[in-house]
Design a protein that fits this description.
The protein is built from five helices and five strands; from the N terminus they run ββααβααββα. With 161 residues, the chain is of the alpha+beta class. The N and C termini lie far apart (44 Å). Helices cover 46% and strands 12% of the residues. Strands 3-5-4 form a three-stranded antiparallel β-sheet. Strands 1-2 form a two-stranded antiparallel sheet. A hairpin with a 5-residue loop joins strand 4 and strand 5.
């Protein structure tokens, strides 16, 4: 099998198959076929737990994180307001989600020096850029929901018979 160089972080050996080759590399990882292997690497998001890209994607794709980011668009909310707005989230899960989003630099926490303390959450400038991306995904979903519903119905009809 002829081999070349890969820029994939998931392929530490640095080899991929080229032009019609197939199989796995020496570590057992699948190899990319075809001459355009450098254009798209399906293994670019490493499955190892210590991969930062994978960790970030896991964080921002989490349903609670998406809802928090959506709710904080152009406003600040207190913890209790967020909890009231997000149906089904527990106090503990909201606390964990907010801490992780704050750690990632997507949400900022403001503590007002009053008794009792008032804490508000808002999006950072980085969080606002992520909200724009999420909004694009929501817009795509809304534009194609009828097509998806039709595809689901067709699939379910085939599965029954």
């Amino acid at each position: 099998m002829e081999e070349g160089t890969s820029k994939s972080p998931s392929n530490p050996g640095g080899t991929v198959a080229v032009a019609g080759a197939s199989g796995v590399d020496g570590s057992g990882a699948p190899v990319v076929e075809g001459s355009d292997a450098d254009c798209f690497d399906p293994f670019q998001w490493d499955t190892r737990e210590d991969c930062e890209v994978r960790q970030i994607l896991d964080r921002i794709a989490d349903k609670w994180s998406l809802l928090v980011i959506a709710l904080l668009d152009n406003r600040t909310l207190r913890f209790t307001e967020l909890r009231r707005e997000i149906d089904g989230i527990s106090q503990r899960m909201l606390t964990v989600t907010l801490r992780q989003l704050e750690r990632d630099g997507l949400v900022h926490r403001t503590v007002h020096p009053v008794v009792p303390p008032r804490v508000e959450y808002g999006l950072t400038s980085l969080g606002c850029t992520l909200h724009e991306t999420i909004q694009s995904l929501v817009n795509w979903t809304e534009a194609h929901r009828a097509e998806i519903a039709a595809a689901r119905a067709a699939y379910d009809a085939r599965s029954v018979g």
